[in-house]
Design brief:
This protein is mainly α. The chain is 53% helix and 9% strand. It has a single domain, classed as Rossmann fold (3-Layer(aba) Sandwich). The chain has seven helices and four strands; from the N terminus they run αβααβααβαβα.
Amino acid sequence: MLADLRSRGYAVAPDSARAIIAERRRGGQSPRPPPLEFAAEILRRDVEAYDSHAQHAGTVFYDRSVVDALGMLNQVAPLSGEELEAYLAKYVYHRKALVFPPWRDIYVNDAERDQSFAEAEAVHPKIMSWYRACGYELVEVPRGPVEQRSEFVLRMLTLP
C-alpha cells in the first residue's frame, strides 16, 4: 500500500527491519543479528527516518515507526518509564495509528519476511497492546484492493 500512497505523491518511509535483513543477506550473514542488536539498529534507523522527514511539509507514511522499534527493544531490554516517555515526546506521530491485521490471502514470505503467518498472528495483538499503552488510538484498515485501502486511509486522515 505504501507504493500506492507514494504514487499519489505522499512521502513514505520503508521498513527498517527489511532493509537490515536484506543488507545482512547480501553480506552473507544470518538474516538477523542477536535480538538486542537488531532492535537497537531498527530504532536507530527509524529515528533517522523520522528526523529526515521532520521538515517535510506534507504527510509522511511510515511502514513502521519509532514506536514499533521501542516495543521491540522493550521486549529484549525493558525501557524505564522516563526513557519511554522521552522517546514518545520527541517522536510524535498522528494519534491514530493504522493497523493492518495479518491477512492470510495476501501474506507472502520473501527474502526479508521469513516470519510464518502463525508468528505474524501471534505478534499482532502484542503490537496493538504496545501502541495502546503508548497512547495511540488504533484504526483497523479494512481488507480490500490496495486502492480501496489507500482511499480509506486518506479519508480517515481527511487528506486529498
